[in-house]
Amino acid sequence: MEVTDKLRILEDLNMLYIRQIALSLEDTDIQKKIEHEIRMREGACKLLAACTQREQALQATKSLHVCSSRIVAYMAELQRMKEAQVVRHAARRPSDAAPSDERLPCRGSVCVSDLRIPLMWKDTEYFRNKGELHRCAVFCLLQLGAEIHDTEMVLVDRTLTDICFDSAVLFSDAGPDFALKVELYSAALSGGGAGSAPRKLASRISSSMGRSAGRRLRDCANASADRQGALLLPTPTLPGPKYHLLAHTVLSLAEVQDGFRTHDLAIACSEESSFWLPLYGSVCCRLAAQPRCMAAQVMCGFLRVQPAPGDPQGCARLFCVLRGTNLLCYRHAQEAEGSVQPALTIAINKETRIRATEQEERGKLHSISVTNRYGAEEVTHTLLGESRADTQRWMEAFWQHFYDMSQWKQCCDELMRIEVPPPRRPPAPLPRQGSLYHDMALPGPAVPPSCEGLLLQDNAVSAEIRALLSSYYSDSY
Q1: pLDDT tens digits for 165-184?
Q2: What per-residue confidence (pLDDT) applies to 102?
Q3: What does the alpha-carbon distance between residue 387 and residue 446 come to, in Å, rounded to a whole number?
Q4: CB of 37 closer than 8 Å to CB of 77
Q5: What is the pTM of this model?
Q6: With 0-12 CB in 10 A as exposed, 13-18 as middle and 19+ as buried, what is 426?
Q7: If you placed Cys at 151, which of 52, 115, 140, 328 could pair as Cys (CB 3.0 to 4.6 Å)?
Q8: Do the Cβ atoms of 285 and 112 come closer than 8 Å?
């Protein structure tokens, strides 16, 4: 049995194992995700085997790499879920069962936008345009937990001073302890000579150059492709370009800021690598976070608001909504759903002091005092609950809200702007490079009858590739 056959069998066994683990946990959501990525991976493998153009092969290899990364991430999530399931079964025993008082922070959204990676070319390369033209195709892979997103692919050479990824990447279910991995991948591109052309295209062009010249051209193309085949493999079983990890970094809550900021980037390859690029060692982006306690309603209900202790004349029954850094008080519940300004706004932030009290002398009313400091003056509002249970629910909501703000830290100072990325479109073709094979066009009437089948076959392959890529990006986003 050949090595490629053994590797293919191992890959099939891995896919079977992944499916079995997902079914054993009876989690339909992650099952669907794994099945989807497995189908996309199989489609990307077929697509890559059918590619005849460099741009198509780069997009197919990128899709294959992203699918494989997602499958690995889902496998890690399955392992975590399996371990949690074992712990839950063990905790059902009376000796191990114990009440847990641990409070969990709310989840939130994390957005990366305006991603820029500066390059540091030599003066002779950038200003004088001297030396060998070093060209690479790059993209970023961003992972937070089991969620993985990829950027568009960018063609980089010495005419660029920065690698720019304009589209925003949004993670909608993150905790304050998130670790956002940013990985930059690069694939080396040939310089555009005879060896970079597809073999079929080289054969067609050589037919118009005479037998001896055409034979030398075909031999050159085949030899170059054979030499590159051992070096450019995305998987052990598929030929084509290969992406390598060029640099990486991890972003956390400490790096979140409502503005453009520079972060350190760890280089993962040496200058001798064919896919190497002269990175400056930093990545610039806008990293914003929006916890749900800041963006969504935390608690709502009717409360009697007393502006100052001992002033019963000012007590009014208002519909109160706890959201963000404010307690919004409306005269009617319907006003909270519209654009009506609240009758009273009470600040609820990290400096606010809240205390629950019982007033036995007033028919056992239960109240909550909210104190804020404005300069040297303290202002206290008293909130009267309609029952003990109602007061307890509001107090629990306040304590949870303060805990969320303490965990999300600077993200709760004010509501940060989150960019919602537009629906992902199929990747646009890369710009054509100056090459004999890219520039020459075959006119319709001059094509010999023996080549008509090849042209129809290439058109069919191109249509299939476009359809597969379009399906992948429309299903993934």
Answers
A1: 988 999 999 999 999 999 99
A2: 77
A3: 90
A4: no
A5: 0.72
A6: middle
A7: 140
A8: yes
Please tell me what DSSP assigns to residue 199. H
Distinct helix (H) and strand (E) counts, the chain: 10, 18
pLDDT band (50, 70, 90) for residue 43: confident
User: Quick check: helix, strand or coil at residue 317?
Assistant: strand
Give the model's pLDDT for residue 172: 93
Please identify which residue in the block is written with the tokens 């059902």: 92
pLDDT at 413 over 70: yes
Q: Cβ neighbours of residue 93 under 8 Å, at least 6 residues apart?
A: none
| Angle made by CA atoms 95, 97, 103, in degrees to the nearest 5 | 150
Alpha carbons 451 and 107: distance in angstroms, whole number: 60
Nearest to 149 by CA among 70, 56, 76, 40: 70
To which H or E segment does residue 32 belong? Answer: helix 28-50
- Comparing C-alpha atoms, which of 251, 277, 276, 281 is closest to residue 266? 281
256 phi and psi, to 5 degrees?
Answer: -70, 130
- Partners of 155 in beta bridges: 137
Round to whole Å and give the CA distance between 225 and 223: 5
- Alpha-carbon distance of 137 to 55, in angstroms, equals 10
Q: Rounded to whole angstroms, what are the CA distances from 164 to 139, 180, 425, 460?
A: 10, 19, 18, 33
* 473 in Cβ contact with 425 (< 8 Å): yes
Whether the Cβ atoms of residue 245 and residue 183 lie closer than 8 Å to each other: yes
**Rounded to an integer, what distance in angstroms lies between the CA atom of residue 215 and that of residue 206?**
7
Residue owning tokens 């400096």: 351
pLDDT exceeds 80 at position 325: yes
Q: How far apart are CA 59 and CA 316, in angstroms?
A: 64
For the ranges 82-96, 99-113, 250-264, the one whose mean pLDDT is highest: 250-264
Are residues 87 and 93 in contact, defined by beta-carbon separation less than 8 angstroms?
no
Cα–Cα distance for residue pair 396/402, rounded to 1 Å: 10
**Lowest-confidence segment of 89-98, 268-277, 451-460 by average pLDDT:** 451-460
Helix (H, G, I), strand (E, B) or coil at 350: coil
**Tokens representing residue 306 in the block:** 């007393």
Among candidate residues 66, 87, 82, 86, the one with its CA nearest the CA of residue 30: 82
Angle at 429 between CA 425 and CA 435, to 5 degrees: 175
Q: Of the candidates 436, 452, 456, 443, which has an alpha carbon nearest to the alpha carbon of residue 206?
A: 436
